[in-house]
Amino acid sequence: MVRNSIRTIICLIILFSGIDLYAGAGTALRFNGTNSFVNFPATSSINPFPLTVSTWFRSQNTSGSLQVIASKYIDSSYNGWALLMQGGALRGFYYRNGITTNHAIDATSAIPVNDGKWHHAALVIDATGGRLYLDGNLVNASAWN
User: What is the pTM (predicted TM-score) of this model?
Assistant: First the structure.
């Protein structure tokens, strides 16, 4: 089921302030499209602010199930961020301090992204709030709540 429903290859670039990440020839991440993922350890060094999460993804999943693209979030914790597919659309959010009303953004695209085409998503969080982009177009921007 996973093999047929999630043919997602993700190239993940996380740009953190205060953390230097370098790439060179032969250093790109490569995923098998079925069950590959990257797992970062729980450390404060990857809790940056401000931050930008950027990824390319492709999916043909029509089941409507939730598919995480990139995340640093524990379910129902309201503390962290995620880029995911929900109901065939792109959703991005950033919550902090475990409070549902303390967030920079929680937005979902109106355009379906489960069309088998490559899409680019970016989640930008800073002191003014959050912005979610899909294929270079602003999906939504909001101030901190």
Answer: 0.75
Query: DSSP character for 45?
Result: G
Which tokens go with 132?
């979610």
What residues contact 107, with CB distance under 8 A and at least 6 apart?
91, 92, 93, 130, 132, 139, 140, 142
CATH code for position 126: 2.60.120.200
Tell me the residue range of the domain where 70 lies.
2-22+29-34+46-143
In terms of Cα–Cα distance, which of 77, 78, 81 is closest to 69?
A: 81
Structure tokens at 23: 């790439």
Interval 68-76 mean pLDDT: 85
CA separation (Å) from 125 to 6, 27, 91, 122, 131?
27, 26, 14, 10, 7
Instruction: Give the other-Cβ count within 10 Å of 25's Cβ.
Output: 5
